[in-house]
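Dear Dr. H.,

I hope your travels went smoothly. While you were away I took the liberty of generating a structure for the chain from your last submission, since the lab meeting agenda had it listed for discussion. I wanted you to have the full record in hand beforehand rather than looking at slides cold. The sequence, exactly as received, is reproduced here:
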Amino acid sequence: MENIFDNNRIFQSVWKWKIHIAIVILIAFVASAVFSGPFFITPKFKSTARVYPANIAEASEESESEHLLEFLQSTDLRFQLIDAFNLDEVYEIKRSEKYYQTWMLDEYRRHVSYKKTDFETIEISVLDKDPERARDMVDSLILYLNQAIFREKAAKDMEKALIYERDLQKKYVEIDSVELIVDEIRRKTGLVDYFAQATTATRGLMDAAAHRGNTDPAEITLEALVDEGGLMRRNLKLLEDLEVAADTLRKRHEKHYSRATGPITYTKVVEHPFVADKKAYPIRWLIVVLSVLGAGILSVITVSFIDYIREIKSGL
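The corresponding predicted structure, in token form, is as follows:
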């Protein structure tokens, strides 16, 4: 048995059985060429697109591209595409089958694929016997992907928008309350602009005293400033702060409400799918080469083993 793989024996066996080996190889060639034809294997066409993530903030350690992949791998999106193109009929799987979902998703994975490239884009590929349907399925996947991401983010943005709107309404109530206090002080004292009137009243009092004029108007204003000025000043400052805070809340509410009502695109297509004019499956030349190579190797092993067995028997 130790000499079964002797090179000389193998070469002698090949030469001895060369016609038989040639016939086997020829049969393998013809059979592989025939059985890899369209009559036995339905040719399929491939359509591909590449998309780049846009308007997506990274979630924890997950990159934007990986975020797209998570959505593409979701079962909801898969069945959305299956239902849209009636793939149960295309793949000849009845919905009444007990394991319909399992078999359907298995066929889906065989025909639809996506991967992350070295340049952080996502490559989406679809194999189908109809090249136009393959192209349309890729386009639809991109559309469904955008819609799925939008639904998720729109819900979060609307939630934030409602919170900011609630806080904004509270801030408006505070502003109204402070304005009422300021208006009441103005009605009682005649004070309109604390800082301007304080400067004007002081200058008027000094001028009137210097020219021995009537100082009553200036004194009345200064008295009002002394009695109510501090309260007026504090409320004016509070009113200013409240208006700044309200403006900030309003801008945040508008930003999140705008995002929630969209539309916003979360993918940028860098390579659009097109209708393929050449089949991608099966690769007939590869099938023929592997079949011929396999038949040749198996034939050599077989004839070598036959000769070896015969040598053993003849030596007994």
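Two observations you may find useful: The beta strands are 45-53, 112-116, 122-128, 267-271. The first strand starts at residue 45 and ends at 53.

With kind regards,
E. W.
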